[in-house]
């Protein structure tokens, strides 16, 4: 007992001593030119570990045990670094900072998993900072990506933007990796990045880095087309309450632009609050809500020919759903002739060729709900275990209603996605674990649902007696017998068959749509139930303190996909399918030639339990400083992609007697029995139906799908001249092997008699993922220039081009990009008295190009587009607020980023910003 009492007395005696020994330095930093508070400025004790950041009012408190006098090192991008001698604590330090040019100051991490200047990066990298976002004309940072060099985007709807680089562009690109705060942002089941669905909120973006091209050696499978790494704001660094309220309007002048949606309001509201509770504890919470009437896809182009709905009986519009049901009505004509021989003069000329007729389709507007809503919330807690070690816990949740394009249009209604992370890190290492939880909600699959609606209110045919097609045939013959021209006779036949049709908006239509779309695919409806999950654990260590002669970074990663779709998306009827991935990577780097040359190499080992063989990938790079701030770079990267879960295991209804299929033998043999009932290319089947010549049939050669790979070479040069001009030029060449594309095929389950292909109800169509045998090459070049014109004026321009060589014509390979892009920007971040005014403008030009949607949805020419965005802003310095007036696509000339995707018009907006960093 005496020992315990003595111990308590010692603690009580020591505690006051430690409190006395600790001192607090109070200060405030500001912009020397405007007098504004300088936020998120780093204040550190020189040659020490203690440090802090200025808050949203420029204030800071730094506690230290060091004795006076001492020196503070102060730094922030955009300001000249400064050292301040502290000799007394009697008053608050007032520290003015001088503005400095930022060209060449930008630092990146993702290029080599270590901090370096963007200028000296070994590979092409583009960057968006939070300052760029605050002065941008675009409403959200995902739209800003369209102006970056080398970047292609496909906009499926408000809230769903797919990003890629170097040509392979499509909605839901599984070969592009998106990482947010260290977490892979992909949907666990579908494997494509979720864009901004559960990404960072508009107010919480600290930095976005985008690697063009292959990046598997550092970031793993599916990094063939690039990697985007977004980092949220550290609550220790960025503190306070921030609010961003945008009120806008879209769908302006809809009649002129053939837009079925009337002029509508646009809302985007964001809030962020962060607080440092002590030197050890900080937290943040974020929320963003977006609501608008979405852009509508209304391409009426006929996928079956050149005619329109008024001239082609087999009309199937790109964005008309239900017309994929197409039948040769000759059997019905023959049945009519058998029942009434007097029809011979009318029927026999028709029987000389096939007469395909499609069911009547539904337009997207009025069928899919275009009320777009997105809500996401994020919370993060940080605890500094020591000055060097930090623990982080975060949670992000997103939900809403949006539409995206794949083999048809999908309306994601009430989807829910959550990401949850635990991490411990220091400057030299980290250990991170996270999970992604997915709930697809009540997703409506446009094409198959419309076909089922048609079959529900009136079946296509019941033998040759009853149904829509027999009624159509009767109406056609009745019109022809009365002397009506053939084209008009077909219209009369359709009018007769469509009597009693479930029209858009009627009680019958709504009842059928709800019933079919809410019934799982496995039970005869079109609803898929994706409840898949992803679990990931990874660790990395930088051995620089232990290995002095070179930089060594090593890491390991384990990932589990738990695929759970209740047999609606995958063959997982009995239980979830588990797919494991294991990987390890090593990076070696060294500076030689008096540190003017930086050489590095990386190796990565990956194993996926769906495939027998592991993959070893590598990267080698060299950066040489020719002159000060003049860098020549060369890199070789070998990248790979295990087939995504969709490419390997998808088993999804794609329409009436039509499926989207992965390329695993588990499906092709066990499910579809391709070994017993051979598949033929759909194109050759259609030729056989037209010619009745079996020689035109071309059998589809299938095999178990394999990983694809690419070898990429890049040569580039980057330099800053006179602190005012930065240029970057590059060229690349890539060779792809085992390229994964898609083919449309058909077989006749239950029989290998090719004559069964003549009966549409007998054969089944598949859109199958498979490896192309040919080697595919891509190449391109790019250039960019940024000029600091002084007085906060900045202009930028970039040009880039991508080409596909020796295209594999047996596949749909999604190389959907124009031959070149041109982007311009001109902006000022502060002018006038106290620099309270600012503006920015951007122009994006793309020539027309050919676009193919996998799954047979559509193919065609995307028209050229010139898109201009602009904004002007005014700051109320004392109120720490600002007003922005602007618009995107201000000419309101509608454009599209891909066939079957919506046409996008102008959004004019007014934004109020409070305490924006």
Write up this protein.
The two termini are 56 Å apart. This protein is mostly beta strands and 917 residues long. The protein has a domain at 2-97: Immunoglobulin-like. The strands form ten sheets. The protein has a 22-stranded antiparallel beta barrel. A five-stranded mixed β-sheet has the order 10-15-16-13-14. Strand 8 (107-108) and strand 9 (116-117) form a beta hairpin. The relative contact order is 0.11. The longest helix is centred in the N-terminal third of the chain and has 20 residues, at 2-21. Residues 1-20 have low confidence and may be disordered.
Q: Would you summarize the structure shown here?
A:
The chain has 917 residues and is mainly β.
Topology:
Layout: H1 2-21, E1 23-31, E2 42-45, E3 51-53, E4 59-64, E5 70-75, E6 82-86, E7 93-97, E8 107-108, E9 116-117, E10 125-129, H2 130-134, H3 141-144, E11 151-157, E12 160-165, E13 177-180, E14 183-184, E15 205-212, H4 216-219, E16 226-232, E17 240-250, E18 264-276, E19 281-293, E20 320-321, E21 326-328, H5 330-339, H6 344-350, E22 356-358, E23 362-363, E24 371-386, E25 389-405, E26 409-425, E27 429-439, E28 444-445, H7 446-457, H8 468-481, H9 486-497, H10 507-517, E29 533-542, E30 551-563, E31 577-592, E32 597-608, E33 615-627, E34 630-641, H11 645-649, E35 651-655, E36 658-661, H12 665-668, E37 680-681, H13 682-691, E38 708-721, E39 725-737, E40 740-747, E41 764-771, E42 776-790, E43 793-805, E44 821-831, E45 837-846, E46 849-853, E47 858-862, E48 865-876, E49 881-888, E50 907-914
Helix pairs in contact: 7-10, 8-9
């Amino acid at each position: 007992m005496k020992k315990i009492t003595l111990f308590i007395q010692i603690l009580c005696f020591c505690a006051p001593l430690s409190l006395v020994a600790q001192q607090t330095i109070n200060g405030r930093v500001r912009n020397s030119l405007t007098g504004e508070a300088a936020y998120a400025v780093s204040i550190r004790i020189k040659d020490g570990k203690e440090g802090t950041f200025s808050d949203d009012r420029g204030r800071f408190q730094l506690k230290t045990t060091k004795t006076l006098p001492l020196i503070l090192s102060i730094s922030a991008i955009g300001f000249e670094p400064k050292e301040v001698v502290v000799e007394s604590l009697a008053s608050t330090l007032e520290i003015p900072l001088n503005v400095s040019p930022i060209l060449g100051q930008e630092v990146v991490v993702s290029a080599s998993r270590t901090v370096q200047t963007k200028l000296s990066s070994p590979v092409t990298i583009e960057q968006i900072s939070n300052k760029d976002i605050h002065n941008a004309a675009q409403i959200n940072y995902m739209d800003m990506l369209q102006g970056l060099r080398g970047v292609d985007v496909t906009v499926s709807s408000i809230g769903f933007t797919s990003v890629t680089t170097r040509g392979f562009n499509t909605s839901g690109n599984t070969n592009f990796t998106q990482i947010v705060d260290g977490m892979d942002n992909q949907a666990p089941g579908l494997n494509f990045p979720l864009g901004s669905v559960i990404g960072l909120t508009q107010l919480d973006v600290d930095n976005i880095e985008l690697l063009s091209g292959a990046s598997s050696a550092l970031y793993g499978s599916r990094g063939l087309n690039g990697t985007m790494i977004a980092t949220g704001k550290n609550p220790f660094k960025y503190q306070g309450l921030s609010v961003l309220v945008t009120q806008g309007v879209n769908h302006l002048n809809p009649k002129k632009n053939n837009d079925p949606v009337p002029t509508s309001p646009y809302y985007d509201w964001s809030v962020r609050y962060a607080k440092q509770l002590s030197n050890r504890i900080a937290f943040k919470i974020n929320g963003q809500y977006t609501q608008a009437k979405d852009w509508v896809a209304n391409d009426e182009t006929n996928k079956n020919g050149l005619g329109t709905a008024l001239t082609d009986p087999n009309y199937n519009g790109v964005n008309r759903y239900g017309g994929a049901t197409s039948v040769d009505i000759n059997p019905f004509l023959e049945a009519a002739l058998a029942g009434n021989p007097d029809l011979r003069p009318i029927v026999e000329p028709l029987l000389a060729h096939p007469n395909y007729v499609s069911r009547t389709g539904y337009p997207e507007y009025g069928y899919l709900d275009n009320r777009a809503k997105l809500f996401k919330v994020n919370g993060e807690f940080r605890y500094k275990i020591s000055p060097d070690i930090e623990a982080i816990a975060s949670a992000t949740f997103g939900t809403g209603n949006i539409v995206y394009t794949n083999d048809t249009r999908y309306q994601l209604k009430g989807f829910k996605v959550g990401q949850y992370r635990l991490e411990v890190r220091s400057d030299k290492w980290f250990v991170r674990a996270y999970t992604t939880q997915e709930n697809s909600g009540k997703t409506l699959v446009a094409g198959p649902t419309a076909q089922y609606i048609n079959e529900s209110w009136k079946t296509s045919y019941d033998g040759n007696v009853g149904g829509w097609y027999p009624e159509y045939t009767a109406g056609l013959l009745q019109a022809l017998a009365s002397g009506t021209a053939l084209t008009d006779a077909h219209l009369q036949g359709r009018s007769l068959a469509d009597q009693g049709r479930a029209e858009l908006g009627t009680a019958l239509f709504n009842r059928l749509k709800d019933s079919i779309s809410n019934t799982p695919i496995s039970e005869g409806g079109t609803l898929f139930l994706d409840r898949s999950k992803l679990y990931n654990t990874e660790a990395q260590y930088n051995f620089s303190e232990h290995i002095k002669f070179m930089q060594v970074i090593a890491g390991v990663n384990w990932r589990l996909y738990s695929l759970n779709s209740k047999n609606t998306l995958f063959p997982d009827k009995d239980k979830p399918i588990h797919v494991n991935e294991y990987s390890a990577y090593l990076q070696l780097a060294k500076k030689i030639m008096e540190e003017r040359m930086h050489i590095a190499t990386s190796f990565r080992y990956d194993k996926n339990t769906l495939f027998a063989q592991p993959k070893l990938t590598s990267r080698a790079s060299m950066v040489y400083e020719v002159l000060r701030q003049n860098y020549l770079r060369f890199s070789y990267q070998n990248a790979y992609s295990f087939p995504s879960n969709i490419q390997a295991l998808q088993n999804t209804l794609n329409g009436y007697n039509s499926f989207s299929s992965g390329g695993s033998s588990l499906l092709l043999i066990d499910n579809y029995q391709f070994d017993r009932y051979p598949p033929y290319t759909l194109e050759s089947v259609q030729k056989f139906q037209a010619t009745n010549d079996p020689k035109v049939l071309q059998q589809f050669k299938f095999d178990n799908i394999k990983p694809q790979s690419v070898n990429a070479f890049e040569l580039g040069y980057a330099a800053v001249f006179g602190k005012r001009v930065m240029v970057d030029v590059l060229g690349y060449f890539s060779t792809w092997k085992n390229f994964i594309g898609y083919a449309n095929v058909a077989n006749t389950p239950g029989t290998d008699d090719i004559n069964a292909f003549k009966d549409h109800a007998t054969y089944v169509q598949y859109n199958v993922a498979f490896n192309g045998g040919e080697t595919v090459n891509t190449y391109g070049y790019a250039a960019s220039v940024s000029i600091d014109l002084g007085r906060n004026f900045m202009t930028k321009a970039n040009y880039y081009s991508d080409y596909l060589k020796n295209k594999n014509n047996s596949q749909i390979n999604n190389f959907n990009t124009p031959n070149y892009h041109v982007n311009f920007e001109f902006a000022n971040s502060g002018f006038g008295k106290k620099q309270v005014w600012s503006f920015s403008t951007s122009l994006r030009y793309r020539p027309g190009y050919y676009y193919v949607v996998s799954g047979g949805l559509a193919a065609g020419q995307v028209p050229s587009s010139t898109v201009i965005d602009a904004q002007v802003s005014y700051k109320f310095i004392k109120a720490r607020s600002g007003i922005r007036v602007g618009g995107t696509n201000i000419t309101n000339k509608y454009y599209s980023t891909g066939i079957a995707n919506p046409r996008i018009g102008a959004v004019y907006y007014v934004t109020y910003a409070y305490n924006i960093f």
